[in-house]
Amino acid sequence: MRYENRSPDRLSYLWLQLDQNRFKPHSTSQESLSDPLAGRLSYARLREMRLIESGDFGYQIKAVTDQNGKALPTMITDSMMRVDLPQPLAPGASTSLIIDYQYNILSAKELSNRTAYEILQDGSPNYFISMWYPRLAAYTDYGGWITKAFLYGEPAIDFADFDVSITVPETFTLAATGVLQNPDKVLSRTQRQRLEQAETAQKPLFIITPDEAAENAVRQADSEVIWHYKAENVRDFAFAAAPGFIWDAQGYETADGRMVMAQSLYPAEGEPLWSRYSTPAIIQTFETYGRMAMDYPWPHATSINAPIRSGMEYPMLAANAPRPEKDGTYSRRTKYGLIGVVIHEVGHNWFPMIVNSDERHWLWMDEGLNSFLDELALAEFDPDAPLRSEPRDLAERMTRPNQVPIMTQSDAYINRGITGYAKVSAALTILRETVMGREAFDFAFREYVRRWAFKRPQPADFFRTMEDASGIDLDWFLRGWFYSTDHVDISLDQITLATIDTKNPDVEAEWKRAQKAEAPRSITLQRDEGMERRTDREPHLRDFYNAHDEFTVAPSDRKASEKLIAKLEPWEQELLALGSNLYFLDFSNKGGLVMPILLEITYEDGSTEKRPIPAEIWRSNQSHVTKLIITDQTIQSISIDPNLETADADMTNNHWPRKPVETRLELFKRAPQKNLMQKLEGGADDEAKSNGG
Ligand SMILES: [Zn+2]
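That is the input. Now the predicted structure with zinc ion docked in place:
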């Protein structure tokens, strides 16, 4: 490898990532796995541990030399290798390293990972090869060399040009990052013709049909061939190789007028699911991500049915695991699982393959942004597809204990799938649908991609661009959603209905009398109703105060009032006679996250009104606020967030008046338990019955 120092610093050493060392005995990755004693241990985990202890895996670095064959001093720390240069590499200068190394490829059956091989039903192999060479670590302007060991967090690497030659038996079909340089040597004339037809096809065309693949899979190779690839300005290089690949492809024209190829390679085990959904899912990704982020920049995106766990992404090459059952049937979960994972892994071409965020530190910057867009793409693909990270899906999970903020280093995530993926996706959905609006969000999101394509953004670069390009202050939102583990729970606690004091003593006296008459009376007063009192029996005991109640108005009161009103401005006098209803709504923030209060008010005449209150209402008091609603109508009911936009975790306190929670109860009865006498002395029939119970 040739390394060019594009930094302004003199580099006296280089760091390389030895990802395979994760599988060496005593690697930090292995030793930092805790195995809680729960009375059980899976067969698979026990086999994995023994396999790693065998010492058969991880890199064997035989030699590291410069271009003249001179050995260079190295030091290996866990999954990182430092190579000391004979003299510091000046800015703009370049140097070459030659590394002689080998490692054993893991069997997917024994240790499922991001790169492995498997033996298929017809006995032919299927390889997915990635993280297969010592990769140069990133040297950054914000943190120098990124030397963090490989525990789980994916790599922090930089862009490079690749020239790769892979020697395989001639029966194999390959797919890889980059552009095949010698198609006339490794593809048949028919295959090349089909590829050309696929460029303008309206649906995927077979480049290798299932029948041809079945034949290739079992045919004896009589020679070896070299597949030669070049890739420019990509972070990484991966490839897939199998003699039994079925291959389909369909061209797609990007908005900027280029033809890019969507293609899928899979063994017979992937059928009938793969030929139906993999390539169309890639096309969907081109479309949705092209619109929301930027046009796909590379000549192809390829989806491989690989022997790995779930899915994994590389530039231009996505590895995806889902397969139908052996009998060709598949569940709803597998179907949408395949479409979803293809979109997700192909979507990673944008994050982090183009927008090159540091995965080893900030998992959410690629997984979260990608999960947000893959849900948009999945929803555009099929309305029946189950969405997983709508705000309401996150609401309850965000109340659970033992969470870490999104802004936590990747390896320290407790529940990656929630914190790094779904919560970020839900947060971005709330920004887009509720806080910023689609127009402002979409512009800012594209601007982020435009600014940071083929560069290395930090979290603040994303936050800053979203604010800067939209003109919307998001500090409150980012602080709560990205830096805390609070959740959303806004409660409508109390409503007070007020009307304005007219300052007319007669009107006010009448109002007070009516209030008193309508006020609920105590049980004692109710039971004493009609009781004969002393003043009834002896009327001489009644005087002036029995004839004039406490609200009686004196002429002097009227004069004082007239004087006071006369001093008011005409507009002030008008307001005294307003007669409107003034509703004071008391809200409390029980979850901790400040959010807009999305009110929907229903009036007595059946009409409804949306009254969103911005999140800034919480700026002077983060736990309690009161909002005044002035209306000539009578409010019948009020709801907060009726369209489930904000991930409010407790909807029972969102309604006035409160609504019953509806649920279904299952009736049950206890199953009879046999005692020991019955078990020992009972007949065989009884035994069978009790087992069946
Ligand atoms: Zn991902």
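The mean pLDDT is 94.
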